[in-house]
Amino acid sequence: MNWIKTKNNNKINALEIPTGTVEELKTDLRNMKYRPIGFFGKQEFSNVRLYVVLADDSLGDIYVSSILFNPDIKSYDSLTPEFPAFHNFEREFYEDFKIEPKNHPWLKPLRKNQDEYPFFKMEGEDVHEVAVGPIHAGVIEPGHFRFMCQGEKIYNLEIMLGYQHKGIEELMLNPNNRLAESICGDSVIAYNMAFSQVIEALTQTTIPKRAQLIRRIALEMERMAIHIGDLGAISGDMAYLMGASIFGTTRTLIINTMLEISGSRFGRGLFDVGGVNFDIDKEMTKKIKSTIDEVLKTVKRTAETMLKKTSCISRMEQTGTVSKETAVLLGAVGMAARASGINIDSRYDFKDEWYLKYWQNTEFKPAGDVWSRFMLRYKEIIQSAAFINNFLDELDNNKDGLTTSINNIPPNTFAISIVEGWRGEIVHCAITGADSEFIRYKIKDASFNNWYMLSMAVRNNGISDFPLCNKSFNLSYCGNDL
Fold this sequence. Notes:
Largest sheet: 5 strands, mixed
CATH superfamily of the largest domain: Cytochrome-c3 Hydrogenase, chain B
Number of domains: 2
CATH class of the largest domain: Mainly Alpha
């Protein structure tokens, strides 16, 4: 199977994307050892073209190819039994185009659930089911959790999503920044950045370096804010109320600073394609640095206190464990993957020049449990604070403006942008047609990869551990139900 090699935030000629077969793809997957970041279809008259996008994280390379299914082809041999990371990708492709991956082990609805969903069943006198959702006690989005238990012990958790039929990818055929930043409300900056960059890649537009820095400052502020909030949520679910209160209050300092920069606590409207709409002057720089310093002191003091308490450690250690081997098979990404020992981070792997300049590893020995996910967040908060301070210093040397004009969108072009949101990689792919119109816009949230991590994490744990495990991942419903 032939491939076009490209890079993050680059464009290629869509007409030059090669066409191969499923068997050729399997052979290449055995040899290339790359992971899938895109696997989606597009209708071409009576045919369906399947686009396959693979990532080589070690070199920051991206490979693109395709498979063409004519109307007579109704199935193919599933990739999942040999390459489990494709499990959700194949389910989605089948759901959209009814081309069946034969021998797929779990071919159930992914984003379009049904009344008679085929839940996994267990038999036995002492086996019982516990159903939670889709309507929850908290103000959260809909998702159904079906537990198979023996007493308090969880044998299996099945997660059914797909209650929100928003049609985001169809709406993104007429894209704009306000729509992009509304896709996932806790990742406003990351989603807006992925969209902006994919359009800038299509049009070969390079934005001013000052604007590049401000975007990254906002991205790291978003990471800090959500991670701090999640430390509070984990604290609350193990009844450490002091931690929940302090982290919750401290998170507010970050998002209120974002409010002062852009007029929105979550950074809505901060930037558009071509640059940013708000500057960070010297006075604001000083204020951000002061806030970051205050936040770090509080986070370090509170986290270190927690990590000395045996009651906290005993609730987190060896709870909700996902091994590195399982995480690799599932195709885990982002924070959840790193907490299971997979060294993957698109900021570093795809060679973002600003991050590479100041990169420092968050070194510790992850065990794949709640403690690891807590500890990784804590370390990433410290890492993000260092990035923010360094990027703020860079502003003095980069006064080249905030915006630039956008070139015309070209015809028959394919572009991809990967942004490391706080959960993990957010992938936006855009394809244009002969008249420069958008004919396919594909989005992948990190949660698309990681929901099965939660299912694996709770196995053989007590059902009372589920809220703690769930908070330690904090996955997105809306990022799945696009």
